[in-house]
User: What shape does this take?
Amino acid sequence: MAGHLTFPIRGTKFSVNVESSALVAKAESRFQHIEIHQTPCFGRILLLDGHIQLTELDERVYHEGLVQFPLANLATPKSALVVGGGDGATVRELVRDTRLEQIVMVEIDEKVIQVTEEGWPELAGGALQDPRVQLTIGDAFPFVKTLDQKFDLIIVDGTDVYEGEDGAISEMLYTEEFYTDLLRCLAEGGIVVTQADNPVFCPYSRDAALDLFGKVFRNTGWYWTVVPSFGGSSAYVWGSADAQMSPSSHHLAHAAHTFPNEQYDLAFGPWPYANVGEF
Assistant: This one.
């Protein structure tokens, strides 16, 4: 049955209204409300507590930025840790890289995995069943605190901490203490990357992550990709003790990457938008 969905991009200041052709799946976990809709404009979309997470239209671009861009800066990655990403698409991108021998994933909400596997199986594409993947259901904050292992790439794919909303399940994943634990788990030459919300309309998320990363990692930076369903774009913040992410596609450590060079160069190029608005 057709209807309309409205989801916020920036609190009460900016929302997106889309038509829903059908409710594909829904569930209530002990953490959040989960819905998958079919829409004419975005294809399938995933909502958690009414907030947009992914759409069929642009999730590939989002995940290439989150996964493939840092992987292209690593010459010989063997292991990766994923925090969050219960929809499975981040792991889907990781298993494409045959250099990786081990992928550890920790997700707090098993229901997200179940609902997306049933309502949108193409999203993970069976990646969670890859023999290199070790899945743990639990809270990442205590998990990494006791983790005795080093990783070449660590990806934080948690939900945003939304403006004007309290009690986000991912709140502790955006703290100096958590990032310090990630640094301890980072191998020599390794990189940590976190998604950092919309840099146009929610720059405070990117700025807060950069500030915390700067207190923990010697090298830090940020980049972005075009993600229409997020209100136009998505930011990513990276950190490392001893590595850098190249600002140019011509100097990547791994030449056999899957994304267009132009896409990478745009992500690290000059910020094209005016600084306006009450942010």
Notes: The mean pLDDT is 94.
